[in-house]
Amino acid sequence: MRSINEISESIRRGERLAAEDALKLWREAPLWLLGELASERKEQVSGKEVYYNRNVHLEPTNICLFNCEFCSFRRREGDKDAWYMSLDDIEARAMELRGADITEVHIVGGVHPKHDLDTYCAMIRRVKRALPHVTVKAYTAVEIFYMIRNDGISVVEGLRRLKEAGMECIPGGGAEIFDATLRKKICPEKCSSEEWLAVHRAAHNMGIPTNCTMLYGHIETLEQRIDHLERLRSLQDEAPGFDAFIPLKYHSHGNRLSQVGECSVEEDLRTIAMSRLFLDNIPHIKAYWVSYGKATTEMALAFGADDIDGTIGDTTKIYSMAGGVERPSMSVEELESMVESVGFTPIERDSHYNRVERNANTNVDAPNLEIKVEAPKPHSVSEKIDTMTTKSNTTKPKATTTTSKPKSSGNNKKAKRSNKKSGFIGFLRRFPVIANIFYIGIFGIITLVAVYVGLIVGTRHGKIIEVPNFMGMSIEDAEGVALKSDLNLIVRDSIFDVDLPGGTIVDQLPKTSTVREVTVKPGRKIYVTVNAYTRRMVNIPYVAKQTLRQALNQIERSGLTVSRLVYEADMTSTDYVIKQKVDNREILPTTERKAPVGTGVTLHVSYQHEEQNTQTPRLVGLSLQQAKNTLWDNGLNLAKVIYDDSVEDLIARRKARVYKQSSKIGTSLRRGSEVTLYLTCDENLADSMSVIAAEEIKELEKQRRKALEEREAKEQE
Ligand code: V47
């Protein structure tokens, strides 16, 4: 076995650290040496630079199928503090972020039983629709693996769909600890380590960058940590694509591992340094400030970290629910001064570690979405190491107490008069110190009441307004209603529907509901979509010679629609567009043509004989447009649309949802077949049919898994 000196020398020569040496270093090397070695490595990779970005998290739900021992975030459906954001909620949230000057939305949440790949893709599309220039970093490999398996498709196909929807990179969550025995103890229901790695491998091979993490400081051993790092390092050798590694310190509040407590700050620093030294092929090591708090994050920069994550804007609950920073939010100035205070140069990066250049006048504050956390005064790194305690000191805003000098009561006349008075007043005059405490108390109460009243009046706190139903109104009428209701109407989009008069509102966010009152605060923005007065002309894109899905995406983006999928037998491919026609005329690459928005394009698509059939997808619960997209995605056509009596007019049609489909979910159909859809505005009916549909999908999945197991068992025989 080599000595610490020999190992250090070998590291300095740039040699790769072996597992055995790493274990010795981790256990025995003095903290200062780890800091020195890791800093030298960091300096070779990123010099004096330390990266941050302007980001928010979006956690669509905390309802999760998996029940991990370390998790404080997860709730069951029906729990009083469970939350769930519909696609509309997600889009509305993204719309609110439009002015926030962020470059990244990080989406991750619970694995919700009703979410399938389409839902996950739709979430990304909704975010991108509201924030087209923002990078979507979405879904842990655990979520991705779950949705892909549920849809019965390959990892590559699933990632391709997510990428097409707008996912640009994948966060590192869900890795926890790879050791199978430990994984079984702390997160038995999650995908296996091999499956987690397979998702990241496939992503890297497809050019999708990802991050990786390790949840440490609970019941794992050092050997298990090193094994975890080794698997990440091997994958990066085999299929490079990890941008950053994030060691995630376990937080013990409110979960079933609480009794193990939290590891020391020294252990945090050792882990960061060892990660930098061991992962010689992953460029960035991130000290996630939301987990560490500011003090440890600053120190982490002297132990090899070169990224601190971003502004966050109080948008993540995973850590605050586990006892991390309570309302995590930092302005750009705070992040930069934190980095500068320990001698490094802060660099704003985008999601791919490119430097973001800004004009001086646009370099304003980060999204000021919620309350900001108080910044502690910066100390030097050495000072911090000296004062390190054995337990974690995650930063939390401290309560401050104010003292004020008691006022002098040295007025003789008054004193004499007070002596004459009896009762409470007399008592106060005789005991000036008690009197002063009493007056300060009264003053405090009056101030509190004044602030409270001021807040109520100033923020119109407590006042709520029922959102009016603007659908079907003319834009002029709607503006009048909005004004009266103290709401702010914003035209977000326009469509063209020949059947409706120009200027009619066809959609709104937030929507109203027939089953519950939708309320908002005064002044809230209501986004509306209006039917245009004239039909815009748009370019017809050339979509032949690409996959059906790519073609569908381009057609949707151009403002056109699909009129029909015509399948043609082919020897080599399935779901590949052979040619396209508009008004029965073939469009060629050289044809420069425009068509009125909403014009239908006929796509001629290939199928191989053995892939002649496709499965009927779930359409129940979807709007007509969503259902059409799903049908086309699955190689099927729409036959008829039948509305029930609850759909009273043309506007109501836009709100209606599918409650019945002519072909049962999972039925095998010839590609190009037609499916009839039945739509309703009765939300109770649509919801109850959706629940039944979700059950059917679960049942199908069970049957498919059973069939697969039987086949595998037979093959083994
Ligand atoms: O996978 C859950 C961890 C992760 C606890 O890729 C906990 O840039 C500590 O992955 N104590 C989700 N950790 C967060 C995550 C992440 C965060 C920031 C940036 C990036 C990135 C990724 O949080 C989970 C799990 O490992 N976690 N509960 C807890 N009690």
Characterize the structure shown.
The chain has 717 residues and is α/β, with parallel strands linked by helices. The chain folds into 3 domains: 4-348, Alpha-Beta Barrel (TIM Barrel); 465-531, Trypsin Inhibitor V, Chain A (2-Layer Sandwich); 539-716, Trypsin Inhibitor V, Chain A (2-Layer Sandwich). It contains 22 helices and 25 strands. The strands form 8 sheets. Strands 1, 2, 3, 4, 8 and 9 form a 6-stranded parallel β-sheet that branches. Strands 16-20-17-18 form a 4-stranded mixed β-sheet, covered by helices on one side. A 3-stranded parallel β-sheet has the order 5-6-7. Helix 6 (141-151) crosses helix 7 (155-165) and helix 16 (423-430) crosses helix 17 (432-458). The longest helix is centred in the last third of the chain and has 34 residues, at 683-716. The two termini are 47 Å apart. The model is unreliable at 362-421 (pLDDT under 50). The structure holds ligand V47. Ligand V47 binds at residues 70-72, 140, 171-174, 176, 211, 213, 215, 246, 248, 250-251, 255, 288, 309, 318, 322.
Outline:
This protein is α/β, with parallel strands linked by helices and 717 residues long. Helix content is 38%, strand content 18%.
Strand proportion = 15-25%
Q: How would a crystallographer describe the biggest sheet?
A: 6 strands, parallel
| Tally of contiguous helical segments | 22
Structural class: alpha/beta
What molecules are bound to this protein?
ligand V47
**Number of DSSP-assigned strands:** 25
Oligomeric state? single chain
- The value of Rg in angstroms is 30 Å
Q: Termini, distance in Å? A: 47 Å
Superfamily at the CATH H level of the largest domain?
Aldolase class I
Could you say what the CATH topology of the largest domain is called? TIM Barrel
Domain tally: 3
Q: Please identify, by name, the CATH architecture of the largest domain.
A: Alpha-Beta Barrel
- The first-level CATH class of the largest domain is given as Alpha Beta
What average pLDDT do the residues reach? Answer: 87
Report the uncertain regions. 362-421
Any idea what the shape is?
globular
Instruction: State the helicity in percent bands.
Output: 25-40%
